[in-house]
């Protein structure tokens, strides 16, 4: 058995969790990388930890756009999470995609009536990286997803300041017939919630094309 995160052999002290949930087992070191967010005390809009009331950012989005995202995030975006995402997303270690499939499966079960839509990469970014980091994780779950959006080429979000992200122009177009979207509930899925601008762009476009409800799920906040 190998750790689904670092890929090291799990030889000694196999726990019951590792035995019965071997599709997402992590070694003791990697288990400590991921800090779960307490949903009871998270912002009901963006999922920000320790903000049980609607946070100031979400109030601003509500004033600007007329809605909040209602985002659910699995983990805190901290040093531990960065130790996972940097080799996976930026170095391209595809073996790391199963690090938290158990938690991801459990979260997606709460959205069974939704269409699952991972945020897309541009064609250029996909060709450079070789995979969509969100789809890579979703492919190991028991749920299917729809590529409802396509993306124009823009500078990577990781290279932009907060102010640049907030000023970003609409990067998405509908991928395929809009009949897929009309009167549907859609769950946008991304790796990290930062300013929320990209998710709100996706939600705005989907609402414009007739979606009934749009929410989001991210791996970290």
TrEMBL record:
Pfam families: Pribosyltran. SUPFAM superfamilies: PRTase-like. Residues 176-220 form the Phosphoribosyltransferase domain. Transmembrane segments: none annotated. It comes from the Bacteria. Belongs to the ComF/GntX family. This is ComF family protein.
